[in-house]
Amino acid sequence: MSDKKVLFTGAGGFIAAHVIPLLIEGGYTVRIFDNMTRGDRARVNEFVATGKVELVEKDVRYGGAVREAMRGCTHVIHFATVSINKSIADPHESIDINMIGNHNVFAAAADEGVERLVFASTASVYGEPKRLPMHEDDELKPLTPYCISKRAGEDLLGFYERQKGLSWNALRFFNVYGPGQKIEAYYTSVINHFIQRLRAGQPPIIDGRGDQSMDFVHVWDLARAVVAALESERANLPINIGTGIDTSIAALAKILIEAVGVDVEPLFNERDVLVSRRAADITRAREVLGWEPRITVEEGMRQLVEDSE
Ligand SMILES: NC(=O)c1ccc[n+]([C@@H]2O[C@H](COP(=O)([O-])OP(=O)(O)OC[C@H]3O[C@@H](n4cnc5c(N)ncnc54)[C@H](O)[C@@H]3O)[C@@H](O)[C@H]2O)c1
Question: Domain named NAD-dependent epimerase/dehydratase: which ranges (predicted)?
Answer without folding.
Answer: 6-242
